[in-house]
Specification:
Distance between the termini: 23 Å
Largest sheet: 6 strands, mixed
Number of strands: 6
Radius of gyration: 17 Å
Low-confidence stretches: none
Structural class: alpha+beta
Order of helices and strands: HHHEEHEEEE
Strand content: 35-45%
Length: 164
């Protein structure tokens, strides 16, 4: 069942990504509207909250970044699905690694495409962390794609995150 879910999610993301990135070529450059500007400002607010929550490693702040039905592919094991499960996963991680510390978090979003209630962004994600208080800092760098979902209040939250 979980394998089928991952295949479904991967297929959905592939189709969504192709549609998002093919759309401007088919219809010309996307028009800048007041709605687009408001969406981009709200997405930037999510990016700032993501950076603050990641550096603080506060489980409640991290959980608040996700839509109720969000899917996080970043935890070991199967995807974590739903805000409740996300909160439990962040709490468990923190309890098992109380001295874990993020020293730097450097997302660099290269492209954001908004279609209706969804936004797809791709970028480079890097950071430096320590697993223990006296541990050696570890630097990581990768690429990723994040699917965002507009909330009823106009804010945006993560719906699916896949980083490599």
């Amino acid at each position: 069942m979980r394998s089928a879910s991952l295949v479904t999610i991967a297929g959905f993301l592939a189709g969504l990504g192709l549609g998002f990135f093919a759309r401007p070529m088919a219809q010309g450059a996307p028009r800048q509207t007041d709605t687009h500007a408001a969406d981009m400002a709200a997405i930037e607010k999510l990016h700032q909250a993501d950076m603050a929550a990641t550096l603080a490693q506060d489980p409640k702040s991290l959980t608040a970044l996700w839509s109720d039905d969000g899917v996080n592919l970043g935890f070991p094991g199967p995807p974590v699905v739903g805000a409740k499960a996300m909160g439990e996963a962040y709490e468990k991680f923190r309890a098992e690694r109380p001295d874990f510390q993020v020293l730097k978090y450097m997302p660099s979003i290269r492209d954001v495409r908004i279609v209706d209630e969804w936004a797809l962004e791709v970028g480079d994600f890097g950071g430096t962390y320590k697993m223990t208080a006296n541990g050696t800092p570890v630097t990581v760098q990768g690429k990723g794609m994040r699917l965002l979902k507009r909330q009823t209040d106009g804010s945006w939250k993560f719906a699916l995150v896949g980083l490599k």
